[in-house]
Amino acid sequence: MNLFVLISYMTINMFGVTPPAPLYPIPTPQQLVWQQQEMGMFCHFGINTFHNEEWTDGTKSPESFNPTDFNPQQWAEVAKKAGMHYLILTAKHHDGFVLYPTKHTDYCVRLSPWQNGQGDVVKGVSEACKKAGIYFGFYLSPWDRHESRYNDNAAYDIYFKNLLRELLTNYGPIFEVWFDGAGTKGHVYDWDGYYQLIRELQPNALIAICGPDIRWVGNEDGLAPETLWNVQERDGKKVWWPAECDVPIRKGQWFYHTDGEKKLLSLNQLLKIYYHSVGRGAVLLLNVSPDRSGHLPQSDVNRLLEWHSVLEETFETNLAKQAGWSASNIRGNAREFSPEMCSDENDGKYWATDDTFSTGYITLKFTSPIVFDRVVIKEQIALGQRVEEHTIWIKDKTDWKKVSSGTTIGYKRIHYIPEQKTDEIKIEINKALACPTLDFVGIYCSSPRDLKVSK
Ligand code: FUL
Asked: By alpha-carbon position, which residue is closest to atom 10 of ligand 1?
C-alpha cells in the first residue's frame, strides 16, 4: 500500500463511507425474511385425500374425512429435515371443506367421524410446526364449490373474512397466507378488505399469489425463468413482488392418490427444480401430500431426504473461503465494502463499488488449482435488485475463459456448470441498474449424486 492509498484509506475510515443509496422499490423486512427461508413445504390435505380426486365438487360427505393416524409432527419434522423452513396447509380447498371446527359452516371436520368430531387439523399442524421450529402458514381457497353464499358476493365476503379471522387469531403466528386464483374468474372479492384484516391481525404475515407480498411464478413445475426480477408492476405501480415456485412432488397431483407413487419425481427432477427455483432467485414451495392415514408417504419422505442430503453434500465446502479476494473497485476504498465481505451470506456485509460504476468484478485467487462446478452469487437485495448481466470466468493459463453467464442475480443465483480446474475465478457484473452490490460468492464442487453437466 503506498502512502497516498494509506492516507486516503485512513481518512475515509475516520469519516466513514456512505453505503449505496437503496434502489427502490426494495423488499419489506418481512419479504426479506421470507426470501431467506429459500424453501417451504406445501401440504394439500382435505376431503379430496379420501376420494382420489384433485378437485371434488363440494358434495362429498364430511363423513368421508377420516385419517386413521393423523401425525402432523411427522410432516413438520420431515419438512425441517429436508431444509424447508415453513409449511403451508390447505385450510380449505376449492371443495369448501374446512379443516378446523369453524363456527361459520358445518362443512368442516366437526361433522366428520375423525376424533369424534373433536379434531382440528390446523391446530395440530400449527403446533407441530412451532415444535419443529419452522414457520406455519395456510392456504385458503377463495373459490368455494360448496358454500351457497358463494353466489352472493357480499355474503361470501363476510363468510370468508370470518374464516380468515378465526385462522388469524386462533393458531399463533402466521407466516404466509396463500390465496389461490384458480376457479375464481368472474367472481368479485373484497380483496382490500381481506388484506386489511390480515395486516390488522397478523402484521408480519405475507400475502401470496392473489396478494401484494409474493407473486406466483406462473407455472406449477417449480421453475423460474432465467431472468427473474423482483420488481414488478402491480396495480399500475412498481413494487417489490418476489416469486414463489410451487410444485407437487408427485407429478400433477397436489392431493394424495392411492396409486400416485409412480408419479413421484426422480432425484434428478427435484435437483433440477432446486437449481431452477432457488438457484434463480425464487423461493421453492414443494408440495408433499399426506396420505389417508395422515402421514407423509414413506416413498416421498425418502426421496425428499435423499434430495436434501445431495444438496447438503454439494454445498458443504465453500472453496471461496480459501481464496484471496480482489475487485475492480471498492466503494470509497473502505474495508466494509471490500470483496472479502462476500465470504458469508445474509450477514449484512457486502461488496459495493463507487456510485460512478455500473459494472465491475471480483476475482478469487487460489494458492493451488481447485476443481469446481457450482458458483453461487447473491446480491444485497435489501438495497434493491440491480444486476442485469453477469459472467463467470476462469484463468486458463494466461487467458480468461468464459465458463458461464447469466442475466439477473437477485437474492441468489446458482450456476451449475461442467467441472473446471483453475487457480483464479472472476465474477464479472457486465450491466447493472446502479452500482453493483454482492452479498455472497460461493464456489463448490458438487456431490457425485448431484446433476452433472457435460462439456
Ligand atoms: C391450483 C389449484 O387448483 C390446485 O388444486 C392446487 O391447490 C394448486 C396449488 O393451485 O390453482
From this structure: 180
Whether residue 360 contacts residue 327, with contact meaning beta carbons closer than 8 Å, is answered with: yes
Span 6-40, pLDDT tens digits: 554 454 555 689 999 999 999 999 999 999 999 99
The pTM (predicted TM-score) of the whole model is 0.96
- Chain segment 307-353, per-residue pLDDT in tens: 999 999 999 999 999 999 999 999 999 999 999 999 999 899 999 99
> Within 13 Å and on the Cβ side, how many CA atoms surround 76?
22
The CA 244 to ligand 1 mean position distance, Å, reads 14
Ligand 1, residues 56, 215, 254: which to mutate, most atoms within 8 A of Cβ? 254
Helices (H), 16-105: 29-37, 72-81
* Complete DSSP assignment for 97-124: -BSS--SS-SSBGGGSSGGGGT--HHHH
Query: To test ligand 1's pocket by mutation, which of 42, 95, 220 has the most ligand atoms within 8 angstroms of CB?
Result: 220
Ligand 1 binding pocket includes 313 (Cβ within 6 Å): no
Strands 413-432 and 360-378: antiparallel
- Render the burial of 374-383: b for 16+ CB within 10 Å, e for the rest: bbbbbbbbbb
The CB of 5 under 6 Å from ligand 1? The reply is: no
Q: What is the pLDDT of residue 186?
A: 87
3-state DSSP: the chain helix, strand, coil percent, rounded to 5? 30, 25, 40
In the predicted model, is pLDDT for residue 248 greater than 60?
Answer: yes
The answer for residues whose C-beta is within 8 angstroms of residue 448's C-beta and 6 or more apart is none
Reduced to 3 states (helix: H, G, I; strand: E, B; else coil), residue 441 is strand
Task: Count CB neighbours of 13 within 10 A.
Answer: 14
CA distance 100 to 107: 10
Q: Which residue spans within 225-278 are E strands per DSSP?
A: 231-234, 237-240, 243-248
Cell of 19: 453505503
Q: What percentage of the chain exceeds 70 in pLDDT? A: 97
219 lines ligand 1 (CB under 6 A): no
